[in-house]
Amino acid sequence: MRSHLRPRIVVAAAIPLTIAALTAGSTAPAPAGTGAATFTNFEPAGLKTFGLDEGGGSVGTKCPGAGPSKCYNVAGEPAIRADEKGNFYAASENGLGAGTEAWKSTDGGLHYVTLPSPNAVSTGNDSGIAPGGGDVDVAVGDDTNSAGFVPLHIASLNLANIDVSNSQDGGKSFVLQPAAAKMVGDDREWIAADDSHQSPFKVPLEGGDKVCISYHDTVQNISVDCDYNGGLLFPQHSSAIDPSHAAYLVANNAIGNLAIARDTFEGDHTKGNHTLYQIFSGPKDLAGDIACGGFTCYNAVYMGVSTDGGVTFTDYPVHINPDVNVSYGHQFTNVSVDRTGNVYAVYSDNHNIFYSFSTTQGTTWQGPFRVNRTPANTAIFPWSVSGDSGKLDVVYYGTSHSPAAGETPDNYPASAAWHVYFAQNLNATTAGSTFTQVAASPVNHYGGVCESGVGCTGNRDLYDDFGVAASPTTGMASIVYTDDQFRASDARNPNAPSCRAATTNSGSCVHTAFATQLTGPGIY
To answer: pTM for the full model?
Structure first.
């Protein structure tokens, strides 16, 4: 079993602001335009809880604005979503046993306010122990409840099982389900939400939506568990790998995220239809599995599609590379669905980012098409968000370093400078359409990037993934990412002697940062 659990980071001191915000006085992003996208970057406040110095803030701390003595955190490997009202919700991990950080933006991602830890025993917990703290993912519901809030769901690993924390009040408080998964010994969970109209149990709570999680169980099968009461019980259990592929994929795959299509209408029929999509990679067939021996042979990208609410799945090939030695088992294959039900698969071969698209609810695919271009000569860790029909944003870590024969990102030289890149395609359901590309962040890492989870022997400061969301009210993106750089020009927190100014990485500087789009086209 290939684990992606994040080891705990404990530092005794604060981390300074990553980069000064380019604009701090605005209350909303500029209207979407036709020029190149521009971004502002800043660091949110972590909670000073769990008996540890995980950040300088408290619940309600607003960054930027509260100052470097509060606007810092030690979290990494974040996730982000936007609800239908344009609120952004993000979460990141302090490491197993140290709990999850969470933030909310109500002004288009220009500022983020620190929320209570979703999986803490209590807001004031100082025991030094909290459930969760492993891989994180975020989901938002489809509809508002009677109080006017869109339900929020945050998933995290706790070694034995999966924490699902649910909020019906916009992140002010959470109800924790610490054993959401039907199978134990879980790894790399994902979460998605929808409305609860399809409940076979006929007992939806007021405001409760449908919530599904997917994860690797102890035999590397991809389990999918669903709940129809706002993420409380998860009684429905299935496998995303169908019987025709089980012989060579159940124990031999790399999991990607889970997505649910919302109700969308085209003409006189429903196109989205609440279909569940589970993306993953694996070998082409049993012969390929045996010949190549596993992880290096994940030359096929698959989409598990469920049209019955997650009870059963059928797996369709997105792309099969004829070269068995090409692997798409790199963190992570990613799926997103636009407002009219078009589906996008994004994946990496460890050097470039590709996407494929489906206008037939995941049953047939066109692609692959390359996303990144110079100066992002190497691109890894893709994530996507789609908006109106054919509009797609993709983010990835990229460097101008071009690999020599046989060279992988794990052993790139110290001179390889990585940035967060933002690519956008406003005609993504047209074969051969092009992406714009801009660097959305300053350098966030130098040198090698290990992609083998806890099996890494090289630098793992960037961990395994990050994310992007777009506001349905403005169309503009907000990116949450991991950074290990100290900004010498920033006002340095006096309590941070372990985070040194340097031109290379510092593990003690690892933190979560935001890059929010200020100008350029939006996808809604």
So the answer is: 0.89
